[in-house]
Amino acid sequence: MAENQNAGTKIPAEIAALSFEEALAQLQELVKKLERGDNKLDEAISSYERGALLKQHCEAKLREAQMKVEKIVLGSNGSVGTQPMDSD
Known about the structure:
Helix content: 55-70%
Distance between the termini: 30 Å
Largest sheet: 2 strands, antiparallel
């Protein structure tokens, strides 16, 4: 899927293609630039918008990972299996 939809905002394909680590690194760099105030107003707004999309992408990746997390269980017959992680 090239585009993710989160809270009504479509994630551009070039951001959706990023791994969690790549998106997080880009987000951290944007935050540093915004904190330094090195950007003109228009650039700062564009950076903020991109940062919001990167944040949404990172959150979606974390949700995906959380759903995949399973805990290992040992059955009464000694077999090893998995079951979904408790969401508590």
